[in-house]
Write a structure and sequence with these properties.
By secondary structure, the chain is an alpha/beta fold. It has two domains: 120 residues, Ubiquitin-like (UB roll); 120 residues, Alpha-helical ferredoxin (Fumarate Reductase Iron-sulfur Protein, Chain B, domain 2, Orthogonal Bundle), CATH 1.10.1060. 28% of the residues lie in helices and 15% in strands. It has eight helices and eight strands. The strands form two sheets. A six-stranded mixed β-sheet has the order 1-3-2-6-4-5, with helices on one face. A two-stranded antiparallel ribbon has the order 7-8. A hairpin with a 2-residue loop joins strand 4 and strand 5. Helix 5 packs antiparallel against helix 6 and helix 5 crosses helix 8. It binds iron/sulfur cluster (SF4) (2 copies) and FE2/S2 (inorganic) cluster. The site of one iron/sulfur cluster has 14 residues, from helix 4, helix 7 and helix 8.
Amino acid sequence: MVQINLPENSKVKKGKYYRDKTGSKNIRKVNVYRWDPSTGENPRIDTYEVDMDNCPSKVLDLLNKIKNEIDSSLTYRRSCSHGVCGSCAMNMDGKNGLACTKSHAEIQGDINIYPLPHLKVIKDLIGDLSILYRQYESIEPWLKNNSKKEKKEILQSREDRSKLDGLYECIMCACCSTACPSYWWNGDKYLGPAVLLQAYRWIIDSRDEERKERLKKVADELKLYRCHTIMNCTNACPKGLNPAKAIASIKKMLATT
Ligand code: SF4
Ligand code: SF4
Ligand code: FES
């Protein structure tokens, strides 16, 4: 059997232990992935004892508490705190999700927090999404309609508008793409569920005039057909969307047009 070992500098080591200083009787241990490329050191897992009596309910509150009261060097993305911007996506308790909507009370035992899987790490909990954003740009996620200059608005029937439901809500958090095994292994070529759901959102928009060109652009062995309908993406979406269905719809449109 082939044995694959991680390079020595990729091994995640045991990090610092931050004991509670408040004397609280309600303590939880929070294990957080840490890596700072400027130090040249290996990644490590730091453990923080956190006083839960004075911590609001979400994992993001927990991280903010650690950053504000225990260790200001902890680095992560966040902005809206309301599940709207997608920036606080990370892996909590082994599952991708949004730290600002995930309740820490749902997690049994120690709370383990990692960056989204299979991304290059920029620092601590921040994954590098530049490939995903380039892929997003490649599908040209904007309305293409040449007649729009002559009209004040482009009308759409209620039925056509409803075809965007389950698509427009996507916040591009990347929880789905980073849960997809096909994207793990071919992330530079396969567009992945987040970008394909967005591609479908424009393909199916009745106001857009470039449906054929859009379909042609994604009809590619690597860009689209690397999806093997494993469904991890749909299970991972914190907004309850179904990227696997959107991908299947693109495949169906290609097969029938
Ligand atoms: S259904 Fe397709 S996109 Fe979703 S996890 Fe599986 S392979 Fe990835
Ligand atoms: S489909 Fe869901 S998981 Fe994927 S990027 Fe959009 S909101 Fe995030
Ligand atoms: S901070 Fe915006 S989605 Fe969590």
